[in-house]
Amino acid sequence: MKRIIVIFLIIISYFNTVYSEEYWKEIYRTDEIIGEIATNSHGDLFFTTNKFMRSINHGEDWEEVISQRTVGVGIDPTDKIIVGPPPLYVSEDNGETWSELDFDIFTGVGDILFDSSGNILLAGTDGTMNGICKPSESELDFDMFTGVEGILFDSSENILYSNSNGNMNGICKSSDNGLNWDLVFPCPGLNTEFITSFVETNDGILFASSIAWLGGGGVYKSLDHGDSWEYSGLNNEYVSSLSLDKNGNILAGSRGHYYESNGNLFISEDNGETWSELVDNILVTSIDVSPEGTIIIGSSSVSIYPAGAQFSNDNGKTWTRPGS
Question: What residue ranges define each of the domains in the chain, with the CATH number in brackets?
Answer without folding.
Answer: 5-312 (2.130.10.10)
